[in-house]
């Protein structure tokens, strides 16, 4: 468990620092004065002044922060964030979540590169399966199904319907093209029809990895949104929410099972997958239009853009303060749920 705590502290720090880096680099590009960019929290262990910004590493590896000149309120400094145009503030505030999505994309692409992308070349065929009965053999390349071009395994899956169906496979066999009839069917105790084959995997096509990594990242974001909607609708119980303790517990179990199944490499890739999920999750949650979150600040900026002037800083600050208190209370409740689950 200690190993997992260390891994998740480092993972969480990387994810939060990526988020803060988004704010930092966008603020710099928009001419905002950034006083400090910190990795970690608490007392400073190391720091270096580079120009106008102090770069520091702090004692506790639990995230980081980017401290700008007057992020909220009024300032006479023309380089204060509050003095910038609304569209610039919108970019700066939204850049944190964007960086989390980019990080999730990068991690997903690495994961796809490790696991491989299914091609359209047949690798194995199950005995007595629809594919075996069709006459297609290992090494054949599937180039179309019912006239629709097939480039990879995901294209094949998109063609497969939920009910048994007759398909026309266009394949290349020994350099020659031919059409073959394949009828999908339910095999064994399964509930959905299959063809009964696997395909070769490509691990070193970087553009394919990037493309599939992007699609995987989008699917993670969609899953997070579905979970949030489930919480709002009541389809998912509030007690099913997990905080850092619950995530570490789940991660520990995933690590152990991955070590047993495939060793260190698989365990590391499992952590990469979890990091991608956490990064995308942080990005989505931060965009929610709630006080104290980036989404709440974006909401006030949009109001400013509509009405032509900013909400009085003391009023906006009060709303964010209340939101922070509620967020802290939510954190305590989720932590309690985590502890109770661990106790069984």
TrEMBL record:
<keyword id="KW-0812">Transmembrane</keyword>
<dbReference type="InterPro" id="IPR001478">
    <property type="entry name" value="PDZ"/>
</dbReference>
<comment type="similarity">
    <text>Belongs to the peptidase M50B family.</text>
</comment>
<dbReference type="InterPro" id="IPR008915">
    <property type="entry name" value="Peptidase_M50"/>
</dbReference>
<dbReference type="Pfam" id="PF02163">
    <property type="entry name" value="Peptidase_M50"/>
</dbReference>
<dbReference type="InterPro" id="IPR041489">
    <property type="entry name" value="PDZ_6"/>
</dbReference>
<keyword id="KW-0378">Hydrolase</keyword>
<dbReference type="Pfam" id="PF17820">
    <property type="entry name" value="PDZ_6"/>
</dbReference>
<dbReference type="InterPro" id="IPR004387">
    <property type="entry name" value="Pept_M50_Zn"/>
</dbReference>
<feature type="transmembrane region" description="Helical">
    <location>
        <begin position="318"/>
        <end position="336"/>
    </location>
</feature>
<keyword id="KW-0862">Zinc</keyword>
<feature type="transmembrane region" description="Helical">
    <location>
        <begin position="90"/>
        <end position="114"/>
    </location>
</feature>
<keyword id="KW-0645">Protease</keyword>
<dbReference type="GO" id="GO:0004222">
    <property type="term" value="F:metalloendopeptidase activity"/>
</dbReference>
<dbReference type="GO" id="GO:0006508">
    <property type="term" value="P:proteolysis"/>
</dbReference>
<keyword id="KW-1133">Transmembrane helix</keyword>
<dbReference type="InterPro" id="IPR036034">
    <property type="entry name" value="PDZ_sf"/>
</dbReference>
<feature type="transmembrane region" description="Helical">
    <location>
        <begin position="214"/>
        <end position="238"/>
    </location>
</feature>
<feature type="domain" description="PDZ">
    <location>
        <begin position="112"/>
        <end position="154"/>
    </location>
</feature>
<keyword id="KW-0472">Membrane</keyword>
<dbReference type="GO" id="GO:0016020">
    <property type="term" value="C:membrane"/>
</dbReference>
<protein>
    <submittedName>
        <fullName>M50 family metallopeptidase</fullName>
    </submittedName>
</protein>
<keyword id="KW-0482">Metalloprotease</keyword>
């Amino acid at each position: 468990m200690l190993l997992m705590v260390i891994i998740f502290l480092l993972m969480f720090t990387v994810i939060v620092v990526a988020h803060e880096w988004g704010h930092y680099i966008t603020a710099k590009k928009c001419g905002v004065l950034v006083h400090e960019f910190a990795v970690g929290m608490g007392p400073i262990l190391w720091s270096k002044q580079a120009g106008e910004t102090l770069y520091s590493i702090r004692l506790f590896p639990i995230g980081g922060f980017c401290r700008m000149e007057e992020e909220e309120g009024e300032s006479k400094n023309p380089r204060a964030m509050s003095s910038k145009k609304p569209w610039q503030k919108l970019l700066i505030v939204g850049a944190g979540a964007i960086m989390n999505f980019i990080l999730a994309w990068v991690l997903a692409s690495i994961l796809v590169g490790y696991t491989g992308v299914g091609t359209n070349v047949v690798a194995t065929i199950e005995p007595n399966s629809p594919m075996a009965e069709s006459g297609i053999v290992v090494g054949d390349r599937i180039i179309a199904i019912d006239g629709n071009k097939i480039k990879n395994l995901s294209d094949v899956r998109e063609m497969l319907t939920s009910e048994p169906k007759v398909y026309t496979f266009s394949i290349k066999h020994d350099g020659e093209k031919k059409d073959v009839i394949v009828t999908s069917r339910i095999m064994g105790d399964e509930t959905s029809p299959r063809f009964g084959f696997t395909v070769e995997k490509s691990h070193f096509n970087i553009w394919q990895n990037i493309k599939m990594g992007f699609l995987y990242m989008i699917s993670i974001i969609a899953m997070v949104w579905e979970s949030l909607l489930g919480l709002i609708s009541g389809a998912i119980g509030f007690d099913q929410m997990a905080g850092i303790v619950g995530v570490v517990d789940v991660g520990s179990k995933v690590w152990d099972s991955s070590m047993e199944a495939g060793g260190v490499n698989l365990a590391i890739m499992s952590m990469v997958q979890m990091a991608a999920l956490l990064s995308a999750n942080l990005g989505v949650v931060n965009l929610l239009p709630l006080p104290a979150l980036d989404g709440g600040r974006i909401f006030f900026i949009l109001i400013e853009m509509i009405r032509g002037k900013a909400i009085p800083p003391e009023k906006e600050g009060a709303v964010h303060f209340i939101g922070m208190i509620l967020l802290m209370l939510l954190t305590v409740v989720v932590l309690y749920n985590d502890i109770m689950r661990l106790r069984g």
